[in-house]
Structures are given as structure tokens and as C-alpha cells.
Amino acid sequence: MTPDTIIAEREADDERADTYKVPGLERGLKILTEFSPREPVLGAPELSRRLNIPRTTVFRLLQTLESLGFLERADKDRNYRLGVAVLRLGFEYLSSLELTDLGLPVIETLRDDTGLTSHILIRDGRDVVFVAKAQSHTPIFSSVKVNVGTRLPAHATTHGQVLMGDLSLSDLRALYPEPTLERFTQHTPETIVDLYERIQDDAQRGFAISESSFERGISVVTAPVRNDTGRIVAVITTTIPRPEIGASLLDGGLIDKVRGAAAELSQRLNYRPPASRNQYMKALGI
Asked: Which of 73, 195, 244, 284 has the highest CB neighbour count under 10 A?
């Protein structure tokens, strides 16, 4: 390949990248980045001048960002400041960093105790997302190659069902308004009621086991992680690349080890079980 060919290919790649850009989104994000601690309040005329965007377009973008909560009116005039949606994104990002930073040593210890690949997952709407991973060093269990960032359907996976343990039936109906759920295997819940019953069973048990219920030849043990408010914010799971969990693993305390890891991460996130909280308040004389 000659230098001229390389340059031509790079230019072609740049042109293709430009075709995938969404101008409205790009402009909206540029508007958000103009706000700063030094200039927390800005109006449409100033933003139009800085970004070289027609004023009427800026007005439409500002109204759209306001409707989504990313901007709010600073006064009765046409000036804006950043809204709570921006703060929420920032806090959720920081929270996810805290979760993975605190959780990685926990799942690494779980991996070492069990020999199994271990993960932390969170729920993002109707998906579950793998956010941290401790890969097994044991050859027989090292074939699990799920990467950080992988997404799976929440309703069809044990991980998602445990993550939805705090949701009410009405919450689930709002999340899944369709009459029937998409089925991936014969084990996938078919309706919201079926899903809710399974979620409640797992919540009462305090953990869940799946043996090839989503992916053939893959079994998992999953337990919920709670934050300082008591809400489920993640799960810790171990993955066994077998269609069934062997008796030797279960007899070796696998479930207790997964639950213990989830409890340790919950404690690191300042979760106090109700009994412990009551004892703590009593000790303070409250």
C-alpha cells in the first residue's frame, strides 16, 4: 500500500464519519458545553454568536434541551442555566465509578475463592450492562469471555430479574407496556405477571440461580447489591461455562460466597440492613 493510497483511505474514512454525524445533536451538545462556573447563565443571542448558529435554530435547541431537563430558565427573560438532568448524568457517572472502583477488589476475591469468572452488572432501562469483570485463572472455567460493556435484555436474564427486585408490578408495566415479552428461550417470562412472579421469588430468596436459562451451556449464581438507601443498584454474579452447576460447587459454598461478596460491596456502598440500622439508631439513643 502506497502513501497516496493510505492518505486517500483516511480521507474517505473522514468523509464517511462526517456522514454519520447528527447536526442537531452536535449543536445541542455544543450549547451545553458553553455553560461553565464562570458563565453559568447564557442567552440565545450570545450562544448564536459564539457557535455561529442562526438564532431561530438556537431558540429551538434551547427549548428542546429545556423540555428534557438539561436546561432551565435562569430568570423570566430568555436566559438559561444547566438543569438537573445534567447533574443527574454527572452523579450517575460518578456513582458508577464508585461502584466499579469499590467492587473490583470484591469480585477479584470472589474469583480467587471460587475459580470462576465474576462480574458486576447494573440495569440501564430494559438492559443489563456488565460494568466490571474478574476473569477466571482456572483453565476449565476461563472460556467465559463476556466483556465490560456487554448488554443483555433485563427481562430474559437472571441478572436483570434480580436487578428489578425493587420494582412493583405497576413499575414493570410502565417499563414493559407491550402485552407480551420478547422470548429468547423457553425459560423467558412470557408476560409481565410471569416476570413479576419470578422477580419476587428471587427477591425473597436473596439470590438467583440460572442453568442454561438464557444461553445454552452457561449457568450463573447472582446476588443483589444495595446502596445506602437500600435500593438494588447492581448484582454480583459468577459464571459457570456448563449447562448445570455441579454439586461440588454448590457443596463448596458457592451461593454463600456470591451472597457474601454482594453483601460486602453493599457495605462498602454504606448499606445497612434494617436490623443493623435499628441497632445503630438504638445505640445512638434515637
From this structure: 195
